[in-house]
Every structure is written in structure tokens, then in C-alpha cells.
Amino acid sequence: QNQKFKAFVVRDKNKSGIESMDLDELMSGNVLVKVKYSSLNYKDGLAVLNKSPIIRRYPMIPGSDFAGIVVKSDYKRFKKGDKVLCNGWGIGEKHFGGFSEYARVNGKWLIHLPNKFTLEQSMIIGAAGYTASLCVQELKKKISPSKGEVIVTGASGGVGSMSIMILNKLNCNVTAVTGKKENNDYLTSLGAKNLINSADLDKEPRVLDKGLYDGAVDTVGGNILANVLPHIRDKGIVAACGNAKHYKLNTTVMPFIIRGVKLWGINSVDTSKKRRDFLWGELPKL
After folding, report:
1. Radius of gyration (C-alpha) of the chain in whole angstroms
2. Which of 97, 108, 121, 228 has the lowest tally of Cβ within 10 angstroms?
3. What CA–CA distance (Å, rounded) separates 265 from 253?
4. Concatenated DSSP letters for 202-254?
5. 42 pLDDT exceeds 90?
6. Are 168 and 141 in contact (CB under 8 A)?
7. In this predicted model, what pLDDT tens digit does every residue of 13-23 receive, in sequence order?
8. What is the per-residue pLDDT across 189-207, written as a single tens digit (0 to 9) for each?
9. Using an 8 Å Cβ cutoff, are 225 and 239 in contact?
């Protein structure tokens, strides 16, 4: 008799809920994982609420990350009992994701749980912390964290708040941008030294402005990013990983050709296994 389990399933744009499923209803893959933890990301919220075309096919089990224990494996790197985690690769969008008691995925998408993390801790960090780590690693290539002035937009979100914590650990002087004044104390507790209301950056950008920051982590795009770019100092870098405000960017070439600013796109979905192992290995050191 096929084992029954529960999963949160989005059937179409108007129907979703917790359902009972059989293992043979899971999508194809060579590793079956008993999911212990997942996390709720901004992208998952959009998917569940159908606020954006995140889901590529129906039915879909949302959840852009999960951590669990291997139940069955036909992939050489994993065996029964291994603790693993997964984020990206289109899970929760085009392949059943983590809001389920079981997940069957391609073994190439999984990595072993770092020794210093529990399964629960790995999902407290989750896709958001992993993406933040990707952003910060790019900033570290161009700026000296110990004396770096860094601005973080969408600061009270998952990636933003994790970025602040990581940058603070690296002794950066962090400026947090948020539209939610009620989160100011929270952001300060994470290590933000300065606070800016996002409304102050939601305006027509200047071609170049006073250079205030060596780097930036941008999660929102749109006018906010357009106003951050003119404030980046010579040879600075902006790691862009989101479009919570808008996907369009109204800017000029001036920050790039006058100050040599780099706008670095962060794609956390298709990152190589080697890079993932490195990033997850670095996180316990912080």
C-alpha cells in the first residue's frame, strides 16, 4: 500500500490547501527526502497568494527550500539517512517544493547538511540567508568589509535582514532602508547603524550623487535601486537579487562609466553545487 502524507497544494489560481497525497504522486527524481523543515520566503508568499506568476505549472507544492533526511536514493552522493538541504532549482515553481512531508528531487539539487547546523537551523537561514550570503560574498571581492559602508534595501525582509546580520559580523557599517518604521528597533538590533525610510529614495534619481556607500545589497529594484546607484563610491558594487518594488530600472550609465560602479546580478536558483557547498560551509563561521 502506497504511503500517504500531507502537502500544501496549489491546484489553480483560486484553489489551494492541505491535501493527502501518495508518494507516487510526487514528481520525478532520484532521491526521496523526508522533509523536516522548510521556510516561508517572499517568493512563496507570492506563489500561495497568486500575486505574481511564480508557479509555472499546476498543481504545485510551493516551498522554495527544505531540509530533511534521505529515505531512498538512486544517486551516488547520497544514501538513506543522510541529512540534506535544497533551495532553488525551480522547486516550488516548476517542481514540487518543500511545503510537504516528502519531496522527490534530482540528487544534483541537494547538498549535505553542514556539520555545524541542525536541520532546523539550516531552514532558519533558508533560501533567504543563502541568497544574502551570495550577495555579501560578491561585495567582499570588491570592498574591505572592516571599513565598508554598505546600504541594504528591503532591509526588514528575509534577504535584507540576513544581509545586515552577516555584514555586521564582518564589521561593515550598515545603512538599512525600510518603509516600515515599526521595524526600526528590529533592524538596529540586527546591527544596522543607520536607518533610511524607503520613501526618501522613491523619487526621480539624480545622474550622480554624493558617494556615500562602498557597496549595496538590493532586494527591491525599481526607483530605490535607481537612487542607490548614484550614491555608490568609486569602484563600488551593488549586488541585486530582487524586485519587490519593481522589475524596471530607470538609471543612467554615469555611475558605471564615471565611478566604475558594478551592478552584479545574483541568481540564487541555479548556483553550482561547488558554490553552494562553499557558501553553506562559510555560514557557520559567522
Report:
1. 20
2. 108
3. 16
4. SSPPPSS----EEEEEESSBHHHHHHHGGGEEEEEEEEE---SSBS-----SH
5. no
6. no
7. 888 899 999 99
8. 999 999 999 999 999 999 9
9. no
> Cell 530600472 belongs to which residue?
249
Hey, what amino acid is at 257? I
What nine digits make up the cell of 146? Answer: 572592516
Please give the distance of CA 163 from its chain centroid, rounded to a whole number. 10
Q: Which of 78, 60, 61, 77 is nearest to 69 (CA)?
A: 78
The whole model's pTM is what? 0.88
Give the pLDDT of residue 107: 96
Residue 13 neighbours by CB under 8 Å, 6+ apart: 50
Q: Grid coordinates in use for 212?
A: 556615500
Q: Are the beta carbons of 121 and 32 closer than 8 angstroms?
A: no
C-alpha to C-alpha distance for 160 and 124, rounded to whole angstroms = 14
CB half-sphere exposure, 33, CA atoms < 13 A: 35
**Residue pointed to by grid coordinates 558617494:** 211
